[in-house]
Amino acid sequence: MTTHPSNQIPFLPVELDPLNNDAEAIGSDFQRYLSYHLGRFQGCPSVYLYNALAYTIRDRLMVDWRNTWAEHLKPGTRRAYYMSLEFLIGRSLSNNLLNMELNANVKTALYNYCTSLEEVASEEPDAGLGNGGLGRLAACFMDSCASLGLPVVGYGIRYEYGMFRQRIENGYQTEEPDHWLRDGNPWEIERSEYSQRIKFGGRSESYRDAEGNTRTRWVDTEDVLAIPFDMPIAGYRNKTVNTLRLWKASATDEFNLQEFNEGDYTEAVQAKNNAEHISMVLYPNDSSENGKELRLRQQYFLASASLQDAIRIWERDHIEHDYSEFAAEHVFQMNDTHPTIAVAELMRLLIDEKHLNWEQAWEITSQCMAYTNHTLLPEALERWPVHLFEKLLPRLLEIIYEINARFLRIVSMRWPGDTDRQRRMSIIEEGAVRQVRMAWLAIVGSFSINGVAALHSELLVKDLFHDFYELWPEKFNNKTNGVTPRRWLANANQGLATLINQTIGQTWVAQLEQLEQLKPFAEPQHSAFHQAWREVKLANKQRLAQLVKAECGVDFDPHSLFDIQVKRIHEYKRQLLNILHVIHLYARIKQGRVDNWANRCVLIGGKAAPGYFMAKSIIKLINNVADLVNNDPEVGQRLKVAFIPNYRVSSMELIAPAADLSEQISTAGKEASGTGNMKFMMNGALTIGTYDGANIEILEAVGAENFFLFGLREQEVKDLRSHYRPWEIVDQDADLKSVMQLLSCGHFNSVEPGIFDPIIHSLLSSNDPWMTLADFRSYIDAQEQVAIAWQDQERWTRMSILNTASSGFFSTDRTMLEYNRDIWKLKCGEEN
Ligand SMILES: *Cc1c(COP(=O)(O)O)cnc(C)c1O
Description:
alpha/beta, Rossmann fold, globular, 3 domains, 25 strands, binds pyridoxal-5'-phosphate, 10-stranded mixed β-sheet
């Protein structure tokens, strides 16, 4: 069935000796990299120590990396490709050390350099190639797939500039470019030999081939090269190293040359720049589309490069190129609609380049594409104008039209005469500007469509995708998100990890359900364990307090309740509700109502999309409230408020372990899953949250008595919409009235009058989609319950332990096993 031509054997049978991992060998390699490779010596800036150490560690991944590839490329091995415009990776060094079990030896090796591993590791810039939850999910999936030995390759874009750096000036967000590659990236390996050519523009034409068949080709295109850069993804202590392949855009040589010969040198260089713009910058919009042409270019660039690469890899081992076997060996998981042009692109490659007929190509495509939906928010549903497709991807538009025509025939056969349904289900939205609905294309082209938490998946089939569910109920499924326990517990919270290891052993790191064994230790007789649990939390809070002092100049007392909301700033996430509570606490202090008081440090962090005016105003409001509260002697230690700038993966690694209270307060029905909620729970924080996304599953896992639930449910939000009158709620609630009065009288913006009017106006609008004031009373009451619980530290500790102990379900190991069981059907490492 499969043969290797002698010149294409993928791996030469050369044995590679594993490198020595003892402290002495690591120390001497480190020294060699520092001095002989980087040309730096003891006493140099720490960033060079980081680079030398990263190279030293990368060397030690090479043998397993090569062997893992060889395993995955064995003929007949089914592989999954995770396609995502975002991978929010963060730092790699300390995570790799944990997974490779090299921490102790590296610490010893660094001993002579008068520096700590923490100091060296903190020199690594975050790989911030994502906006928030969706991108971080992709990174957690990569870790879990490697740790489970699943043959999964990640495909993404190697943005030159990742998520912008956020600074706060006079309370306002400012954005700075994040040139994360400035000092080089020691983790990546450029593989120009696997570059792919990507077409744009031009036109499509018919021609007759040598056998007389009518075919279509895409001609007069402006081509761009896609160059792959590979990053190793080390599994947890299992000798698996998977690959994250990120594409960089580069100009081809020839069209430069043509213009060069015409004497237009600068034009030629400009063309090169245009090509390279494609992978220049990550679009900083979370949960909303922006419709820019360059963004569509990025999407097609990723889809085409990745599909061509997968085909190249497969053809190398399938000499007969018998495409009837292709679908059995491939699944492409599309992370949201961003890469879903892949449906049409795979059709184009199979038909135009591999000369399959439509039916054969469709059979393959619709058997290996799978789509994950991440949001119900209408502003996030991608639609591309048809005219943009005509200009940029004319051949793809033809294919989409044909897919749609055949699909609408199915619809009209199932529902004859139901033209309204045909209009609703058409991949092309008619109107003043005709648009391609990317989610519809994904659904029609995929065999699996999943949401990311139980409620979200239910709402998908009930509302947004209901027509499609009626047609193809078997395609729809749920895969509740998770987070990797290696990064988010074992590595981020080494104090707690050590305590857990001493108590129940360390199998939990690869089997998080084992944390259940902690449940008996929540009982009061284990007072020494409770004491140790509190001491770990206190140490983590001291560490965070130092960061808050350094970054915000605010004094957090580690003995206060650390009440934390960090996530992208978005109206649906309702940072406003949080700040209304802060203002309420402040008003209470001023009114002398300090019964049932718990001293609190409220920390809020997150980035606003640069063009999202309301989100930016919310940041300003938080900062202004913080200024007033923190400098009021009457308030003192009762309340501190800080906005932590530049929230990112590496800051979450310090924040989650130090949280007492996790704020998950989105309007019900709006947060698809949330994953920040899971990181906090794993680290022993209690959640105050709405009945939304994965909060519901967290509540079920830990029990209602260990969760502070409040607010309207999704159906109640819907039912209230038609008769929502927030000003009446204000009238009937004296506390809310005080808060709104402080806001509207300019108490927090005396030197900048009027700047919060849009916020006040939106809160009081009957059209407020987020219904913030509807949940105010319920939230305030739940926060009062938090304060009461906090006063009983023994009770709080018990609840904290139970949260960690119940968090096993929220490991991405579980999520990936479910994807594999229901969608991918790959063989795990041991089965191969
Ligand atoms: C986990 C994480 C998120 C997602 O947080 P949510 O609360 O689920 O929105 C966003 N950004 C970073 C840096 C994260 O680590």
